[in-house]
Structures are given as structure tokens and as C-alpha cells.
Design goal:
Structural class: mainly alpha
Distance between the termini: 85 Å
Number of domains: 1
Largest sheet: none
Shape: rod-shaped
Order of helices and strands: HH
Strand content: under 5%
Number of helices: 2
Helix content: over 70%
Number of strands: 0
Length: 66
């Protein structure tokens, strides 16, 4: 059986491309998780300035009392 370099090169190339795609997928998922975390932290900081809003949410009141 003869070695065919063109076919072998293509399979190696496609394997590398697939590996890069998988790495990019993981990287993007990680990046999205970080962005979600930062957004959540920013929202918590904003809501933290209004403790009565958090209290109303916990007690089930539709409007915070003053």
C-alpha cells in the first residue's frame, strides 16, 4: 500500500481545524461565563444601593414600602 501525502495532509489539517474549533468553543464558553458573572456582580452592586428593593423581592411585595 502506497503512502498518499495529499490525503494524509488533509486529514491532519482537518484534525487540527477540529481541535482548534473545540478549543475556540471552550474559550468562548469560558468568556461568556466571565461576562455573565461580571454583569451579575454589577447588577448586584446597583441593587445593593437599594436594600428596600431587595426586601420587597424577598417578601413578595409588588412595591417596596418606604
Amino acid at each position: 500500500m502506497a503512502f498518499v501525502p495529499d490525503v494524509a495532509g488533509e486529514s491532519v489539517r482537518s484534525a487540527r481545524q477540529e481541535q482548534r474549533r473545540q478549543q475556540d468553543k471552550k474559550r468562548m464558553a469560558y468568556r461568556r461565563a466571565i461576562e455573565d458573572y461580571r454583569e451579575e456582580q454589577a447588577l448586584r452592586a446597583q441593587v445593593g444601593d437599594f436594600p428596600e428593593a431587595m426586601l420587597a423581592r424577598r417578601t413578595g411585595l409588588s412595591r417596596p414600602f418606604l
